[in-house]
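Inverse folding, one chain.
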């Protein structure tokens, strides 16, 4: 359940990034009096660039984490092969540190070692599941998909309505989406909902205001 919640939280954050960054981009282009085709091209390019960047970043990050986990398991495997008695004592001490009596900790350590010594040490000492290490490809695909889904909302909101409504529709749609992302992330993290919603919506509003102002200034300057 904890792993699933972490993945869901990461997906929500990826969607949130997609909404915010793409909204800032297309609103900035709209502020520069860009045509519908220009806004669409900029939005699609930004969406793909952001999605691929998120996917590559997650792949590299999770690959590094997986390499570290494998190295820790290899070290533990070697220590078990070289000095099993010392490892048994260490496991018993770890279990005792978690609240078991010395006698019960020793018995539990013996039973866990007989069943699967590496798995026991991985769980108790390293906090790992040997058969459930982080998968970098899963992380990359999830990040790519969540960012893309988030980015589609402001992109569609600004290219589908009439020109005189595109900004207002986009702002409302983006703020609602960011409020929803803030609410979901707060619920997943058992944090105050109101603060998360306000913070998320305010960040998106600031991003759109800043990029729109820059686009307007560039248009006024004839750039």
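Residues assigned per position:
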């Amino acid at each position: 359940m904890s792993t699933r919640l972490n993945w869901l939280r990461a997906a929500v954050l990826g969607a949130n990034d997609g909404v915010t960054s793409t909204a800032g981009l297309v609103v900035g282009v709209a502020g520069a009096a860009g045509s519908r085709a220009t806004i669409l091209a900029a939005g699609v390019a930004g969406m793909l660039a952001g999605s691929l960047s998120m996917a590559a970043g997650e792949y590299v990050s999770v690959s590094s984490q997986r390499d570290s986990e494998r190295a820790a398991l290899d070290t533990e495997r070697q220590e078990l092969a070289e000095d099993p008695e010392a490892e048994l004592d260490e496991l018993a001490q770890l279990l005792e540190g978690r609240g078991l009596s010395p006698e019960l900790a020793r018995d539990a350590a013996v039973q866990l070692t007989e069943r699967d010594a590496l798995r026991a040490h991985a769980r108790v000492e390293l906090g790992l599941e040997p058969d459930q290490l982080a998968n970098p490809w899963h992380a990359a695909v999830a990040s790519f998909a969540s960012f893309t889904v988030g980015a589609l909302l402001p992109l569609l909101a600004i290219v589908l309505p009439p020109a005189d409504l595109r900004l207002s529709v986009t702002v409302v749609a983006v703020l609602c989406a960011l409020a929803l992302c803030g609410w979901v992330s707060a619920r997943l993290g058992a944090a105050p909902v109101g603060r998360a919603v306000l913070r998320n919506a305010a960040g998106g509003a600031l991003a759109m205001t800043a990029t729109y102002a820059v686009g307007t200034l560039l248009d006024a300057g004839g750039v």
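The chain has seven helices and no strands. The helical segments are 2-31, 36-82, 84-97, 102-126, 136-159, 166-188, 193-220.
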